[in-house]
Every structure is written in structure tokens, then in C-alpha cells.
Amino acid sequence: MGTFLVTGASYGMGHAVATRLLERENLVISLSRTNPMFDAGATHRWYPFNLGKAGVKNLHVARMQKDVVAFSGICINVAVQEREKSQWSRQQIEKHLNVNCLGHAQLFMQMYEHGLVGPRCSIVVLDSFLGDSGSDWAVAYAMSKAALKAFFKSVYKRYSEKLDLSVYFVQPGRVETPGNPVRELADGEPGFQKPEGVAEVITDLLENPKQEQKSIDLFKDT
Ligand SMILES: NC(=O)c1ccc[n+]([C@@H]2O[C@H](COP(=O)([O-])OP(=O)(O)OC[C@H]3O[C@@H](n4cnc5c(N)ncnc54)[C@H](OP(=O)(O)O)[C@@H]3O)[C@@H](O)[C@H]2O)c1
Fold it and tell me: Domain 3-221 belongs to what topology?
């Protein structure tokens, strides 16, 4: 039994990961703006938290310290992708960078400074191939995913020996979630996966880290 942090467990993939971790009798702390869809049972704590708002300072971390000695795993899941608007503006780039990358970087550093990153900790980052390839329509999202990956690669370089860290970048392929609702796809386009299948892989990486940094492409690897 471990203690895990999942960002954005109110719905979508984070919800599937938190549900699976709770089924396996772990303690789960989740952060999001709205309440998760599951009952906050004895082994789950939810803190309202907006990753896009700077200056939240230590409030959430100080509260977490009441429930947690240190995390054995952290799932970096929250991301915004505004599809309905052009992302080719400074405002959109800032919004995506704030929520998807800077909020998580600030949260991780605060947790580290407060001793909440456990001595053997697995970090799973929900990654996107758009961060590697770039995108002509989701430029702000692609930039923020690339920056997030660079941040956690740097974390691995800086802390892996001291902390016995593992960092996994999981590219899940197209997954059926409120953020990416099922729609008709052109012939030959890869279809939607269920979040529960992805959650099973992520839970295994969180519970059984191998002291490594690794990128995993679930679309290619399954
Ligand atoms: N779905 C896909 O096809 C796909 C493909 C590749 C990669 N991914 C990656 O997988 C991850 C999860 O995707 P998803 O489709 O499950 O997303 P989603 O359905 O949009 O869920 C996002 C979660 O993040 C929370 N959230 C959003 N903005 C937030 C904020 N400012 N502060 C705190 N929490 C916030 C939401 O809760 P609240 O609204 O309650 O805050 C929700 O729990 C993302 O990193 C995404 O880039 C997804």
C-alpha cells in the first residue's frame, strides 16, 4: 500500500487512475478545481486547487502534510487544450504553459522542499506526441507539453540519485475522456482507447518503479 498524488482526478484519465489506485487500497490525494466523481472515502483526500493560478504558495502543500508523510508516486495528469480557439496568441500560449507546465513545476518544487517527495518515488507524466512533433493547430498545447517533459527530465537529472526516482512519460494515444470526446475519425486514423486500460498501465508504473527514466508510447507499444 502506497501514498499517491494524482492531479486532475475529478474526471477523465486522472479519475480512472485514482479509482484504480483506490481499488488497490492505496491512499490517494487528488487536486482539481471541482470535486471528483467518486465518494471521498477514507483513503482519498481531495483538495480544491487551480494549477493555472500562480501564487497559491504553500497552502495546499501545508494541508497535504497533515495527511501524508511522503508520496510514493505522483501522477502529473492535468492539462488544458482549448480546441475551440486559435492557440496562436500569447494569451493562449500563457494559459497552456501556466496550467500544463508551470503549475506542475511549482507544485513539485514545493512538495520537494516540504519533504513530500518520497525517498523512492515514481513520477508518471501524461505526455503527448504533439510535444515532440509540434502542431499547426494546437501550438500552445504542444509547447506546454514539451516544456513539461523538459522540466521532469531535469528533475530526474537533478534528484534521481538522491531520491531513488523514476520518471515515466506516457503517451496514451487517443483516449475517450471529457477533454477528448469520441468523434468520427477519418479512415485510417487511430481510434479511441478506454481510460481504464491506460489507468492500469499507469498504476503499475506508479506502484512498481524500476529506478529509471523512460518514455512509453501506449499506442505503439500495445
Ligand atoms: N484524452 C486524450 O486523448 C489524451 C491524449 C494524449 C495525452 N493526453 C493527456 O492526458 C492527460 C489527461 O487528459 P484527459 O483527456 O483525461 O483530460 P480531461 O478530460 O480534460 O481532464 C482534465 C482533468 O484536469 C483537471 N483540470 C483542468 N484544468 C485544471 C486546472 N486549471 N487546475 C486543476 N485541475 C484542472 C480537470 O478537473 P477540474 O475541471 O475539476 O479542475 C480534470 O480532472 C492530459 O495531460 C492530456 O494532455 C490525453
Answer: Rossmann fold (3.40.50)
